[in-house]
Amino acid sequence: MTKIADELSLSIRSITDYPKPGIIFRDITTLLGDARSFRRAVDELVQPYVGLKVDKIAGMEARGFILGGAVAHQLSAGFVPIRKKGKLPHETVRIAYSLEYGVDEMEIHMDAVKPGEKVILVDDLIATGGTAVGAVQLLRQIGADVVSACFVIDLPELGGRKKLEALGVEVRTLVEFEGH
């Protein structure tokens, strides 16, 4: 790991056997609660895109809202929430997606992105990739040019990164953890 990855990994709590036996849950609330680590993570997520024209940052409910909002602010971009089914008040587009532990649905406002706008997807963690792949499909459905997907944590053995790359999406992560 890099020095930055080492520093950030120390601020992430690992909880064994949650939400079920054999799983190690990577909890970023400890990173978010530490001002230095939170700032460092946001700075590292933003850094590759400084000076590039990015129209929108899309964040997935709920931790993606926190990180995505901060990244959008730093890049002077708009923020687009991708929410669980039934939470958005205007006309939406919806997609079903696979979770590590089941299936769910998420949606986005139909007018959240103008066709051709450059969008970066942001969330806390990439595991199996089901949620992120669904989010990319939703964004593309309304005309977004998804230029990248950024995550604080990558669990590489679960294959999510490869699924996004197979869709032609560049993936950037800050910390890798083995085991899930």
From TrEMBL:
Q: Which domain of life is it from?
A: Bacteria
The biological pathway it contributes to is:
Purine metabolism; AMP biosynthesis via salvage pathway; AMP from adenine: step 1/1
Q: What class of enzyme is it?
A: transferase
Q: Does the keyword Cytoplasm apply?
A: yes
Q: Which GO terms describe its molecular function?
A: adenine binding; adenine phosphoribosyltransferase activity; AMP binding
A Pfam family assignment: Pribosyltran
Localization of this protein: Cytoplasm
**Gene3D superfamilies named in the record:** 3.40.50.2020
Which key words are in the record? Cytoplasm, Glycosyltransferase, Purine salvage, Transferase
Q: Which CDD domains match?
A: PRTases_typeI
Which InterPro entries does UniProt cross-reference here? Ade_phspho_trans, PRTase-like, PRTase_dom, UPRTase/APRTase
Phosphoribosyltransferase domain segment(s)? 41-161
Reaction catalysed?
AMP + diphosphate = 5-phospho-alpha-D-ribose 1-diphosphate + adenine
Enzyme Commission (EC) number: 2.4.2.7
Cytoplasm among keywords: yes
Predominantly, its location class is: cytoplasm
Q: What does this protein do?
A: Catalyzes a salvage reaction resulting in the formation of AMP, that is energically less costly than de novo synthesis.
Give the UniProt family note.
Belongs to the purine/pyrimidine phosphoribosyltransferase family.
**Description of how the protein assembles with itself and partners:** Homodimer.
Q: State what protein this is by name.
A: Adenine phosphoribosyltransferase
